[in-house]
Each structure stands twice: as structure tokens, then as C-alpha cells.
Amino acid sequence: MNKILKIVNLKKNFGAITASNDINFCLEKGEIHALIGPNGAGKSTLIKQIMGEIKQDSGEIILSGINISNLKTEDRIHLGFARSFQITDVISDFTIFQNVLLAKIGKEKTFYNFYSSIDSSEFALEQIKSILLKIDLWDKKETPASLLSHGERRQLEIGIALALDPKLILLDEPMAGLSLDKIEKMKVIFNQIKNDVPILLIEHNMDVVFSIANRISVLVNGKIIASGSSSEIKSNLDVRKAYLGTA
Amino acid sequence: MMSEKNISYISLVSIFLIAIFSEYFNEPYLITLLSRIIIFSIAAIGLNLVLGFGNLISFGHAAFFGLGGYVSGILAIHAFNSELLISWPFLFNGSNNSIIIWLFTILFCSLLALLVGALSLRTSGVYFIMITLAFAQMLYYFAISWPSYGGEDGFSIYVRSTLFGINTMKGLNFFFICFFWLLIILFITSKVVNSPFGLALRATRFNLTRVRSVGINPFRIQLIAFVLSGAITGIAGSLYVDLNRFVSPSLLSWQMSGEFIVFILIGGLGRIYGPLIGAAFFVAFEQFFGSYTEHWQIFLGIIIISTVLFAKGGIIGFMLKYQKNE
User: Fold this and answer.
1) Of A76, A89, A138, B155, which residue is most buried, by most CB within 10 angstroms?
2) Is the ipTM, as predicted for this complex, more than 0.85?
3) A47 and chain B: CB distance < 8 Å anywhere?
4) What is the pLDDT of residue A239?
């Protein structure tokens, strides 16, 4: 089973506006699949449907063979969704360690544990250490998230996503506002992670998309007009016309 | 080095020692005062669990304090008068056994907290404050208009409940019981706050979306905390009634809810021992200034305003900050 996520004939209208028009695509094991499209193309609406924050009008969302179209967001997360937010969203009063630990607690459903001490670093320490090493923040584990730089917050976001031990990760503009060297660092992290967990990437930075995505799907006016490798997308005429602006 | 831990232990030990000395110098009034401090702090520790750690501003915790008091008082008075309390499904005359009274208190207050929490946690902010207040006021007016148990005047219970043959009428013995409860409650709350559950609860205070996104249902976390909180405050109510041997609707009044919040703010919001320090300060303040003028609350007002403006961490926060600057 290589198809981790499969979207079948997904449709969503808001009144007369068609936000998702018969969308089909899939995310496979070991890949970074980028979803691109101009503003208002319906990317956010699509992501919200995938996460279960809004309900599709028709069509199916299938995660590893399980139809999750009618599940609530929390249930989808338990089945293996992880998402990092468009607006970087960590708990700034918590340390890096606590932020990742919170995710771990959510994943392992240990939030009804009233007696284990989270101070005695025994609790889930090894797992969290390996995650923090992956995202290169182990040295700063006791730093409150409020003191982190923009890029470090992004790294932490990825760490939180990884703590959920997901089947796939949705990354919503992870490179927005990052400096060039930070972007290079993130690319390395993503390329490492994708072997464990496939990534669905929403990103405006075309250089990033073309350099790390294994496949790219282009969404315009709620419809996927093309899907393929970087070179296929670059040379696709429809895409150039509708999106890149050069025919 | 004065850490938060040291401040906490020092305050516990001092209260204990003052009680022993008061007994030695034959000052029973002081012992009663100390018991009151402890009981108030237990009530506020319960509230602090949701207010300080979950940022749920309950303005109706007097409901649990009062319910705990009424449950205890009613059980005790029926036992004292050998008067039937319920006749179905079995005959029950109430009880003057503390263990039984406490179990009933915990049961009833948890159920009330479950009901109040399940409804009010669907709101937030000002609405949450108002709905918790409304529940407490409902109980308050119910107690006033319930003639069987004294209505507005309340009723007296003549002896304290019994516990393992200890003479509970002796002030110092009753103080020990309260002190023991305080230790238990402090142990439970510090354990809970530092557990995975506690981390989830503290997270709900900052960011509900984030909590949901890692697969935790914040409503359930808050509801469990609310029930625990209500039960703890209920125990305080039970002890308070036993201390005064008197039950009245004022236990349920909104002023009582307000005082609990004041204890927390003065002592230090979201600190395990904050309510203890706050309640001790409040009662001592009341005694000291109350002996000069009946308008002592004017001075309290000044203290509260300065705490909120200049010492947001309350007394504990202020002490920690002061020594850092030194």
C-alpha cells in the first residue's frame, strides 16, 4: 500500500462559489507532494477538508485504506494526521521540551495520567530526545518557545508534528518569512523526514517547491489542472498560463 | 536561597508551629484562626486548579463550598436529632462520622461540578464568569428559601463530627485534622499539576487550537479539572461548617467566591502554595485592621489594587522577584 492519502472526487461549494471542484490526488510513501496555486485557488479549503475542519459536500478522503471522510479532526489526528500551521502556532509559555511533550501526551493518550511526574525527565524522554535531535533543537530544550527565532519556531512546529508519530505531515507554508540559510536548513530536515513520513507541502516559494518536491499538483479555481514532477509542471502550458503567468 | 519551594515549606511549618505555641500559651482563638486560614486555603487551592492553571475564572466556587457545608451540616444534624433523612431505598439517619460525611461531600460536590462544568465550559471569558456565578446564586437563593434547614438564618450543629475517637471539640485536634487535609490536598494538586494531565490543562490556558491539534479534547481536560476543583473546595466547606458548628446561606454567597479569588491573587496565581499564603495574609489582615476599624476592607482594596498593578505574581512572585534584584 503505497498510497498513504487518497482524495477522490472531492467537492465543496460555498453558495455559488466552487472552492473544490472534483479534486483527485494522492500522497505516496516517501515523497514530498507539493500543492501549489494562486491565492484564492482553494488550497486552504482543501486542507481544511482534509483535516476535517470543514465538511466536503461530496467525495471521499481515504487514509491508508480507511475512509475518514466523516471523522472529526481529533479522530483524524489519532489515525495519523499531523499539521503545522500557516500562522506559527506553538505554546509560547511552554519550553521546547514541553511543547513536544504535549504532542506526545496527545498521541499516546496519556492525558488522563494524573500521577507521573513530567519533571523527572523519565517520561517519554528518549522519544522526545530523538525528535529534538532530528529538528536540531536538543540543545535548546529548556528554552521557552517565546524566546525562539522565527526559524526555530518552525523547526519546533515540525517537531510537534513528528511527536504525533503521523502517517503523513501537512506543512502549510513552512518557509514563509525564513532567511535563505534557514530555508536551506529546513530543506535538509524535510528531505530527512520524508523517508519516515510523507509530506504534503503547501508553499509559495517556487524555488523550494521545485527543488524538494517529488511531485507537484497545481490547483486553480478549485480544480487540479496538472500533476507531475517538477520538470513536467515547469513545461506544462496550462500551468504557465494560469499560474506562472508566462505563456 | 529562597525558592518557591522554600517559601512554601516555611509557611507550612510556621503555621504548624504557631498552632503548637498557641496551645502552649493557651490562645484557643488563635488556633481557630489558623484552622480558618487552612480551610480557606484548601477552598482556594481547589479554585486555583482551574483558575490558576486552566485560566477558567469561576466566580461561583462558593457553590461547592456551600454545598459541602450543607451536606455535612444536614448529615450531622439528622444524626444528632436521630431524625430520618431518607426512608427509601433504605433508612438513613445521617451520620456524624467524619469519613462518611467527607465521602458524601466529595460525591455531591463532584456531581454538582460535573453539571456546572458540563454546561459552563461550553462558554468562555465573561460568559463563563457569569454562568458560574449564576449557578452559585441559584443555590444561594434555594438555601435561603428552604425552611427545613433554617432558610435565611441557617442552623447550628451542636457537636463536631467524630473521627477515630479523637476529641474533635478540642481546637488543636481539629486544627490537626484540617492541617492533615491541607497536606493531602497540596500533595494531590502538585502531583496533578506536574502530571501529563496537568501539562494538558496548562496548555488549554494558552491555546485551545493547539491542544486540539495534538489530539487532546480540551473540554474533557477542563471538565475533569473542574470536578476535581469542586470536590476540593467542597471538602473545605465541610471542614468550615464543622469548625463553626454552623451552616448558613452565606457560605454560598458571591462574596465568598470573590474572597477565594482574592486569596489566589494575593498569594500568587497559578502557584500551588499561593492560596495558602493569600488566605493567611487575608485573615491576618482582617484581624489586624479589623480591630482598628470596621472599614478594614478599604485597606484590603488598596492591597489588591497594588498586587494587581505591581506584583502580578502575588506575594510569592514578589518575594522571588525581590531577591533576584538584590
Assistant:
1) A76
2) no
3) no
4) 76
pLDDT digits (tens, 9 = 90+) for B175-219: 999 999 999 999 999 989 988 899 999 988 887 877 877 778 889
Task: Please give the residue range of the domain that contains residue B29.
Answer: 4-325
CA atoms within 13 A on the CB side of B63: 29
Beta bridge partners of A12: A20
Question: Residue B172's closest CA among B307, B47, B49, B23?
Answer: B23
What are the phi and psi torsion angles at A60 (to 5°)? -130, 150
- Across the interface, do A118 and B194 touch by the CB < 8 Å criterion? yes
How many whole angstroms separate alpha carbon B142 and alpha carbon B152? Answer: 10
CATH H-level superfamily of A1-80+200-247: P-loop containing nucleotide triphosphate hydrolases (3.40.50.300)
A164 contacts B194? CB cut-off 8 A: no
- For residue A121, the model assigns a pLDDT of 56
CATH number of the domain to which B298 belongs: 1.10.3470
A106/B194 CB distance under 8 A: no
Half-sphere exposure of A185 (CA within 13 A, CB side): 14
- The dihedral over CA atoms of A233, A234, A239, A244, expressed in degrees to the nearest 10, equals 140
Picking from B4, B187, B192, B199 by the largest number of A CB atoms within 10 A of its own CB, the best residue to mutate is B199
Total domains present in chain B: 1
A93 contacts in chain B (CB < 8 Å): 206
Q: Is the pTM of this model over 0.90?
A: no
- Return d(Cα B200, Cα B224) in angstroms, integer: 12
B196 vs A73, A93, A110: nearest CB: A110
Instruction: Summarize pLDDT for A11-58 with one digit per residue, the tens.
Output: 888 888 888 888 888 888 889 999 988 887 888 888 888 888 888 888
Using an 8 Å Cβ cutoff, are A86 and A172 in contact? yes
pLDDT-based confidence at B71, cuts 50/70/90?
very high
Contact state of A91 with B203 under an 8 Å Cβ cutoff: yes
**Does the beta carbon of A113 lie under 8 angstroms from any beta carbon of chain B?**
yes
Tracing cell 500559651 back to the chain, one arrives at: B25
Give the C-alpha distances (Å, rounded to integers) separating A101 from A150, A175, B96, B203, B209. 20, 24, 47, 11, 16
Residue ranges per domain, chain A? 1-80+200-247
Q: Is A188 helix (H, G, I), strand (E, B) or coil?
A: helix
Question: Which positions of chain A have pLDDT values less than 50?
Answer: 86-87, 247
User: Whole-angstrom Cα distance, residue A217 to residue A223?
Assistant: 10
A105 and B214 within 8 Å at the Cβ level: the answer is yes
